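Quick one, probably user error.
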């Protein structure tokens, strides 16, 4: 009788061990399936399909990967708007107002200074045009992002063209994207570091 009890106990232990191994194997299999299903779902979510005669697939990208490129474009756009001016008050107001959406109060202060000094009135009175050409924008790696803009200005007068070297600096803050600010950056503490004449050529 004791021998049969030992056999039953031994069989029970074996069944218990096998059941435990089976449960662990099932859990491992379920975890592996869930992991690969999650990966596949993420990959599928990052694609869009367009039906125009045939099926096309386009891969999606993480928006953060392109932030330095967007930052350079943002800074370039601001400088082109703020410093490309023709002798027309409406054109000046239109460009400057677009530029002011891209920067904080530091740009508005510079605009007010120009107005107080009669800068825009002098442009209109003397029929002077300004053209800004951005050569490069260097974006820093640290947070918050910093930007240093290198460019050239052309001051076009009736009798001459003056070329100027231009350098400015600012920091960049992430803000909500909008129609007026499509890159979602705001330039802060913007300042002109250098703006000196290089040469003047007769026309």
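Nope, works fine. Designed sequence:
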């Amino acid at each position: 009788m004791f021998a049969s009890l030992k056999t039953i106990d031994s069989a029970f232990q074996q069944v218990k061990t096998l059941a435990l191994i089976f449960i662990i194997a099932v859990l491992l299999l379920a975890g592996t399936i869930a992991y690969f299903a999650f990966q596949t779902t993420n990959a599928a979510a990052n694609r869009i399909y367009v039906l125009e005669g045939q099926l096309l697939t386009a891969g999606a990208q993480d928006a953060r990967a392109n932030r330095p490129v967007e930052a350079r474009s943002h800074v370039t756009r601001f400088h082109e708007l703020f410093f490309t001016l023709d002798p027309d008050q409406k054109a000046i107001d239109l460009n400057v107002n677009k530029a002011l959406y891209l920067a904080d109060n530091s740009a508005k202060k510079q605009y007010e200074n120009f107005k107080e000094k009669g800068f825009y009135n002098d442009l209109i009175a003397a029929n002077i045009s300004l053209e800004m050409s951005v050569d490069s924008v260097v974006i820093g790696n640290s947070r918050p992002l910093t930007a240093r803009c290198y460019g050239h200005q052309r001051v076009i007068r009736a009798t001459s063209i003056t070329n100027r070297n231009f350098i400015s600096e600012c920091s960049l803050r992430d803000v909500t994207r909008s129609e007026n600010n499509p890159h979602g950056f705001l330039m802060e503490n913007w300042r002109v570091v250098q703006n000196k004449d290089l040469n003047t050529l007769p026309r």
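Helices lie at 2-45, 67-83, 89-100, 105-116, 119-125.
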